[in-house]
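Q: Start with the shorter request: fold the first protein.
A: Done. Sequence, then structure:
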Amino acid sequence: MKKNNILILLVSASMIILNCQNDQSISSDFSIILIPDSQKYTESNPDGFYAQTEWIKSAVKKENIQFVIHLGDITENNTDTEWDIANKAMSTLDDAVPFSVLPGNHDGALAIRNTAKYNEIFGHARFRGYPWYGGHRGGSNDCNYSFFNYGKLQFMVLNLVFGPTDEELQWADEIVRKYKDKRVIVATHGYLYFDDTRLGEGDLFSPHKKSKALNDGEQMWEKFVRHHDNIFLVVSGHVKGDGTGFLTSFGKRGNPVHQLLANYQKSPNSGDGWLRILKFKPEANKIQVIAYSPVLNQYNENPDHSFEFEYDMRGEKIN
């Protein structure tokens, strides 16, 4: 009788393991969520921010969410009150789904870094207990990286402070080289412009308006991104206009690098809760970009907001 019970337990355990593996089958779709600039929510409309993270938590299973990235400008004025709101909103994701953050210019990421308040709330001490958190540069969490896997697909999310300096880009270069087996998503606050070009000299919202020591999107591409064939995606916010942009460029080894801008702060009600869903479709080798607002319970079908592009997810190939 005991042998039969043991056999039943072994079979049951095997079924559980198989079911877990099937949940992360390379053929099934999965999602990453981008939270664009939340600065206006923390300044005057916190309910929009709360609605975003509450929806994300509720949709983890339905949307098969594997990771969440905040694109910076978490606050508008870098005040304690605004950071308390941001902490409350993002704490909804604690233990619900892996997530990362990075500081934008409104969070103190200027020529003279003043990110103390950001690091009080979102410093490396907050994340280091999570197995998906990889590490950070120096004593702050201004630049950091995390990991997530889906089946055989192994990803790294590398977060860079607004207008990273040459030293910060050198650190990023070393991290990407160290983890050359990972498929890398680079997230930073200011990178792409609303005209589907990289943020460059003379553009509005350029970090050069703060200091020439800060690198803009074009400099980040030339000095860092284009040199790594495992970087396939760059995501950013910051730029206004219509707050959207998309560009595919090719690295020096001919690898495609897709670059996205999402920033909805100019929409009514501090942004109307709009966020981006990146739905990875391994069977089709495509990524679908979806604009969704949990506040309005609406999708934006405009092709600037919702579209798809090709990305090779077959086997062990990186790009």
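Q: Next, the second protein, separately.
A: Sequence, then structure:
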Amino acid sequence: MSEGRATRVATGAARIGLGVVAAAGAVGLAVGARGPIGDGLGALVGWRGLVVAAALVVGAGAAWRGWPIGRALAWPPRRWFIAGAMIVALASGVWAHRVIAKGVPDVPDELGYLHTARTFAQGHLTAPSPPAQEFYYVSWGLHDHDRWYAVFPPGYGATLAIGVAVGAPGWINPLLGAALVLVLFLLAEHLLGRDHLGARIAIVLYLASWFRLMNAASFMAHPLAALLGALAVLGLLRGVVWPGEHRARWAGVGGAALGALVATRQLDAVIVAFALAPAIVLALVRAPRAAARRFALAVACGLPLVAGYLAYNRALTGAAMVTPQERFMAQKERRADCFRLGFGPGVGECPITQGTHFGKDGFAPKHAVANSRRRLDAWVRYAWGWTPLVLLPLLGLIAVAIRGGAAARRLALPAALFVGTVGGYGLFFYHGVIYGPRFYYLAWPLAVLASAAAIRELGLAVARLGRRGPLVAGGLAAALPALLVVGLHAAWPAVKQHAGRRPRTGDGKLVKALADPALRDALVFVDSMTLPATVTDDPVHPARNRPLVVKSLGDAADAGFARLFPDRRPLRMLGARFVPLAVAPDAPMRHEGGALYPLDDFRGGFGDRGTSPGLGRVELSAGAALRFALDGPARFSVPIWVIAVDAGPMTVALAVVRHPGSPAIDVTIDGVAIATGLVTAAPGWAVERIELPAELTPGRHRLAIAAPTGRRGEVFALDHVELVPRR
């Protein structure tokens, strides 16, 4: 195919694609967004409407006097404008982190990312599991054969580690958002024209968004993914597709950015590659040798980062193609492959970790539609400074589709990225709506470019009005920032409700209470899984945390754990108060069964946390037991810890839930048998203490329980393990 024919085909396809996307978007907004758009229009009733009307009048009057307000946007030199916008993005992002997010994490993912960042900042890939590891918890993290790590890819954790190292992790996402200003401006110049005005409009729309501010406030990976995605698009377009200077350099930057995105959010990388593929193919058709050479350079720059990510997987899971998240799900869910893309039986069957189950047929297209509607509703509500401005991207696509030419080909990229994002995440069973439709943050900056294109096209249309054109243009130029400001103000209560609540940390007050210098020598037990993960700044060296905050597992277990830190004052946190905890000097180490879930070593069944209603309503020491459901002959092991002064001859006491369907078991410690053929079945339900002698050295050991004659349907339940020295 000749170059000219290829260009004509690409242009025609782009125009058709833009029209289809715009039509689909219009139908979607008409069906599902009339409420939010109506709310946005309703916000103009009263004083907000008067502000916008006044701006219209002032803008038109200034234009009549020869002072068009629109020129104010073009007045600052290019570098000054970019620098000023970056400062605004940074300052507003830091404000959002402190005011919206209260400076603390709340979403479980954030705690996982912080754990990874804190571990990396100490120079470790994983933290060693501490003694009595069940007291140390982090969301989306696990203790895996004496290693403690979170499940997410390392890209964002490595970036966040920079902030951890300098004591300012909350500044990382605002800084990433500021960097995106520069990348978005450069990309807009090429996609919207070199007159710079379209790029400046795009930056204004980018800054005036609660979607941006909510993500800047967070400890989530989406701002990094958006930056890397935009940089990959810019680099590969300038390096492989478009003519210009420094093409090899830009190709390398684009390839490296896409490789880093693989190590941050893999699905996002696939979506970006999908959106770029047509432009890359067209470039290869037009200039096969030159484009192929630069594309190969991009691949060469991206591959080391992808290889590093695969090496990270191998270091944690033992296999390059097995992610830590897959390892996590295999331990936490009965259906180990529930957390995957697509449709069918088993997809989304993650009741323990996600609270999701879609029936025997699994996740289906109807569920994908429901999830997408929920995400798109949040897109309408939070992505634009004033809700009705959600119409702008569609208007921009329509205008460029009508115009055709290179403009249509270029704006097809944001459209393809949005379609790929909606479609790609349509295959994911979890809705993910917090901090706005966060899965769509990848596509949002480029959607802003389509909005800027619509405004520019409107400006061209107004210019054709003759003498009235300047007055109309002046009024609209003044009205747009007024609409953005009043729209942001009107949405503020909803934003606080959506992203500003921090119930797990008392809106940050509990974290502040734990920062009291008077607690530096304390060991604090809390009835929370979030607080310990929030305030554990050094997971590699737990004793360096002051105070050391851990999950309370009940009086008996807490007392034994406190003996590991004789130099610390044991306290229990009740609300924002701290109550001294009396600890017997010879309190035995107790491992509560329910806290030993998830198991990192098991076969022939699955272990989870069982509560009294599911275990014959027996009284459990900490409210939950380790419940292991057998599929046949089975075995599992758990870590136990021997306090140094207790080592030697010991009694290993197993508190077992006896019931009619419990198997006979063998018990070993570090492979040495201490009991065989123990009968745990009984006519009724009861917790019984089985005492077994053992000789144990200080430190960590592995207690294994096997049921060599186990049968499918049998269930073994362990309330706790207690290690008592024999004096």
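Q: Describe the second briefly.
A: The chain has a mean pLDDT of 94. The first helix runs from residue 3 to 32.
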